[in-house]
Amino acid sequence: MLKQGVWGDGSVQGTKLTDILGAFYSRFDGFCCYTRPLGEHLGVCINDLPKLSTWNETYTGSNWQSKWTVFYWSWWISWSPFVGMFIAKVSRGRTIREYLLGVLLVPASFNFLWMTVFGSNALYLELFAGVSFAELVTQAPSESLYRLLDYLPFSAITTGIAVIVVLVFFVTSADSGALVVATLTSNGNDPSWRQRFFWMASVGMVTAFLLNAGGLEALQSAAIASGLPFSLLLLAFMPALVIALKRPHVQPPEKTPDIE
After folding, report:
1. % of the chain with per-residue pLDDT over 90
2. What pTM, to 2 d.p., does this model score?
3. Per-residue CA distances from 166 to 128, 228, 240 (Å)
4. Residue 3, SS3?
5. Distance (Å, whole) CA 18 – CA 21
């Protein structure tokens, strides 16, 4: 599996590296044991999910959701065309059961493990080790992972792995986005490298312009604005998916070579 992750798809490579990083620290029980917090986190999530799904700050007078919950909804909705086409390609030939297992359950389980391993260590530093880690994260949020790794064993090695993980994430995300846009503009055909390069350069220039114009807030506003029309499309796709699943599946005939 590791060989496939290194030499295969770049996104798989990043996942394998994060697996290694999380599994590496799960072997060290000096800070805390991960079995108990993992079970507690799962229980809290299952218990609070209905409440958090309908909570909208009606009586608090705060505006926290607009900067977090609503933003991340719009963020992922704006990514839905890219992620949807990528998942459709890798899921071709699989059943709906296999799709749900591979796309929903496995990534969610990995996310629980990742958050438990690194989140529990961060909480241990804050609550029991006398380290003002929350203050460090507040001062420099982008450095929070590297600050945490400084307190863990073999920080020089794991910091290098973390840098590679972040680099692979950005590179593969840009490449996948360019591939999807180029495919959409090629009527579903495999695009040439020129088209992929054009769209990758275009995405990079738009991102650089937004960051230069208004920083991260401008980029977040653009993501929310682009997520609005896609949210309407997703609402239309829901009944269309139900109708498509009710139709009987007809296997297309295989093409046979012409014999003169």
Report:
1. 1
2. 0.64
3. 29, 28, 37
4. helix
5. 5
